[in-house]
Amino acid sequence: MKWKTSIIAREDGGRFSGSIAGSFAVYNYIRFNAINPFSEFEESNLLIQSVPKENDLPKRLENWKLFINECKEALTNELQDNKMLIFSGDHSGSAGIFASFKEALKDEKIGLLWIDAHADLHTPYTSPSLNPHGMPVGAILNLDAKHLKRRDLPIEIVNLWDEIKDATGSLSPEDVFFLGLRSVEKEESTLIRELDLECVSAHDINFLDIDGLAQRILDFFDGYDAIYISFDIDALDSYYVPGTGTPVPSGLTPEFLIELFDLILPKLPIKIFEITEYNSLLDIQGKTLNTIIEIIKPLGKHFEESA
């Protein structure tokens, strides 16, 4: 089964424009600099949703629902026969990627490794910002979390959120592993406890042996047929990644992630590897892009071996 590369990007989920440009920047750097094996991967469909920044929540949710359904049309068939390296814009796009993953592999046991500073477990009831890029895991887990609500919602928003959840598909909390969390609102912390979600925070990592952590991840996904890794670059310490919309200090280092990937990638049935939330318009002298490439390059051998 071969690997393909694709850009599946939108940027209406966050506060800033520039994450679509960031997806193209990484993609083009790999192509133009002939970074193997990635530059040799066959190109897949590009799906771009570039819409004006909207302050109107119903419009933003309507756009998000449209994107999710378009993802399913573009990616589902691809994922039945291929593995995908995806450069996405803001993290709300992951709901569409997951929807395709779920639809393509409906008869298989699938799991999600979410590498991020944020849990993205919010819903329109709980989100402080109402930015959709803080809600993709909430959509994937089909949450409402009304018992934690910050606000009542008009029926229009309730219906749109139900349609987004339906379009996304669903995953059980027992199939999700969080890694690197450190910027989590109280509602999300409560949901992590209530749903008994597997979580290794950035703080926890300071006290763990990396071999033990790798084994914990491998044990968690033992018996799974396909894994989707969603890597939000803000999982890294903000020193390394100024070019992202929500940088957070006290995060992971590139060296740590490279070593961890060396330990787990050869032993996991990876179907999708997504890199998300790089905003080239916020980057400082290309520092973030260089960090991303530093992490990507060593992954090549694992991708080749699993093709």
Protein described:
It is a single chain. With 307 residues, the protein is of the alpha/beta class. The chain has one domain: Ureohydrolase domain (Arginase, Chain A, 3-Layer(aba) Sandwich). It has helices spanning 19-32, 57-81, 93-104, 136-140, 155-168, 186-194, 202-205, 210-220, 254-264, 287-296, 300-305, and strands at 3-10, 42-43, 47-49, 83-88, 110-115, 176-181, 198-201, 226-232, 270-276. Strands 1, 2, 3, 4, 5, 6, 7, 8 and 9 form a nine-stranded parallel sheet that branches. Strand 8 (226-232), helix 9 (254-264) and strand 9 form a beta-alpha-beta unit. It starts with a strand and ends with a helix. The model has no long low-confidence stretch (mean pLDDT 95).
